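Handout, section B. The chain below has 138 residues.
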Amino acid sequence: MRFKPLRSLLAVLIAVSAAAQTTPHFGGQSWWNHIKVLADDRLEGRDTGSRGEREAQAYAVEQLKSVGAEAAGTDGYYQPVKFVSRQIVEKDCNLALIRDGKREPLTLGEDALIGLRVMPAPEVEAPLVFAGYGLKVP
């Protein structure tokens, strides 16, 4: 998810902005300028491990230094984080809806998309519930 790195960077910039509130240079426009830098298309979404993420990190560090914040990470201003990733091997997986003993196979990528955010269970037996499309239409 691409929003977590942005949230982390925004948290850092909140701290920078809080420190900068005692200076005459901080205001709504300077805050918006930080947002424009971090949301700029040239950072290509700041995907984990990408060039755009590294540029966003460098920007945040530059801002911290500019207000005199001391480095507190294990590597200067940086704190390494171990990532664990999972990937579905579609040829080795299957997915089906079972109702009243009848099995209806589903095709991954066409009938179903699976986004793994937690350790996947080897098998799940549960009722199917349609929760809507997430739209609120007045």
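Note. The chain has a mean pLDDT of 79. Compare this with the example in section A.
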